[in-house]
Write a structure and sequence with these properties.
The protein is of the alpha/beta class and 276 residues long. The chain contains eight helices and 15 strands. The chain has a nine-stranded mixed β-sheet, covered by helices on one side. Strands 6-5-4-14-15-12 form a six-stranded mixed β-sheet. The chain is globular and about 50 Å long.
């Protein structure tokens, strides 16, 4: 695994109401526990069903599926992706696109292409999709792992892209391991006796879960931005005590055709070919 320098290449019991500030803590449900389990972790699927299906097929049997938000937005398959995650019993958190699709003020911060796509998503989503998204907490915790979309100190919006930002967030979670997304770039930060090391994983890269604190980003399933167009994910093996990153090819032209048919912004479709 390569050591990253500078920026990262490019850059349950539920409390509170569904509008924000809610946290889920693990209960007895098997999907919520992190002990002696093999767990697939997905992030930033962004309504890209072909990418999701390719990742599910490549990873195969696991004990649980976790997601880190931005399930919808950008892509043409919001209902289909949510239905697939619901069928899997996936556990996860909300992202800024999920909140915006429900009519939240986050849309005011979006660029024109992202805003056009999220407004299309809001019009198209079925009631059961809205209900599922609204039920997602901002933060989820198990005995060893904290899940957020952005960062633990700002679960919806903060991008963890530099060592100073990663270091500042160490005090904002208490578990050994943090799972976060939002940047669409796979990366890990490890606390080595007070020295924070940034690591750039590639397909098949592994790290031991040896008690040293880790911030782990699986990259994006539906819209990678690290120059690799393949879908990204990771697997936590809590029995073997390791994390493994995966990159999976998928039929990009199929989702691009669906985006054109839906009249979503052309730039959003084109960038999928380049992973940018």
């Amino acid at each position: 695994m390569a050591q990253a320098t500078g920026r990262a290449k490019a850059a349950a019991v539920v409390t509170g109401g569904p509008a924000g500030g809610i946290t889920a803590r693990a209960t007895g449900d098997r999907a919520l526990r992190s002990t002696t389990m093999r767990i697939a972790v997905l992030s930033d699927i962004h309504s890209n069903l072909p990418a999701l299906e390719a990742v599910l097929a490549a990873i195969g049997d696991v004990d649980a599926w976790w997601h880190l938000g931005d399930v919808v937005g950008y892509g043409p398959h919001p209902d289909e992706v949510v239905a697939r995650l619901r069928d899997l019993g996936a556990v996860g958190v909300r992202g800024n696109h999920d909140v915006a699709a429900l009519g939240g003020p986050e849309v005011e911060w979006f660029n024109p292409d992202a805003r056009r796509a999220i407004e299309w998503t809001e019009r198209r989503m079925a009631p059961e999709t809205r209900e599922w998204l609204a039920s997602l907490p901002e933060r989820h915790e198990t005995d060893e792992v904290t899940l957020v979309h952005g960062s633990p100190r700002d679960p919806i919006w903060e991008y963890v892209t530099t060592n100073p930002i990663a270091r500042a967030n160490l005090a904002a979670f208490s578990t050994p391991y943090l799972l976060h997304g939002h940047t669409h770039i796979p990366i890990a930060w490890r606390d080595d006796d007070g020295h924070l090391v940034a690591l750039g994983p590639s397909d098949g890269s592994e790290l031991p879960l040896d008690g040293r604190r880790l911030l782990l980003n699986p990259g994006s399933v539906g819209q990678p931005r690290d120059g690799d167009p393949r879908a990204g994910a990771l697997v936590l093996d809590m029995e073997e005590r390791r994390v493994t990153w995966h990159r999976v090819p998928y039929p990009i032209t199929a989702v691009q055709a669906d985006m054109r048919a839906a009249r979503l912004p052309a730039r959003l479709a084109e960038r999928l070919s380049h992973g940018l």
